[in-house]
Design brief:
About 75% of the residues lie in helices and about 0% in strands. It is an all-alpha fold.
């Protein structure tokens, strides 16, 4: 049960960061992820990174729910798929607006 609470907290923190990014606050991203983003692209960049972060946060919470219900295999599948989708969206935004991930 303690692991589930930790997963909820981590998931919620990631969701909150995603919401802040979607509103245009990309200051929580590392400087090399935002240094080449044009001023007019901050909002679209933040929205895409935020969507990816929210997907990851929700996935972590869902995986915890499945773990509590003793569906460990489903939990692992949900976690793998959700994190892959979220990171793919974030990397897409970085390549599109920052011309790379580093």
């Amino acid at each position: 049960m303690g692991e589930f609470i930790i997963q909820i907290i981590i998931g919620l923190i990631i969701i909150i960061i995603g919401i802040l990014n979607m509103k245009g606050n990309i200051s929580l991203l590392h400087s090399y992820h935002r240094k080449r983003v044009k001023k007019e692209d901050i909002i679209p960049f933040g929205k895409k990174v935020g969507i990816g972060s929210i997907i990851i946060g929700i996935t972590i919470i869902l995986a915890g729910v499945f773990t509590i219900l003793n569906y460990t295999h489903i939990s692992n599948v949900v976690l793998s798929i959700g994190i892959t989708i979220g990171i793919t969206i974030i990397f897409y935004a970085m390549f599109k607006y920052n011309k790379g991930i580093f």
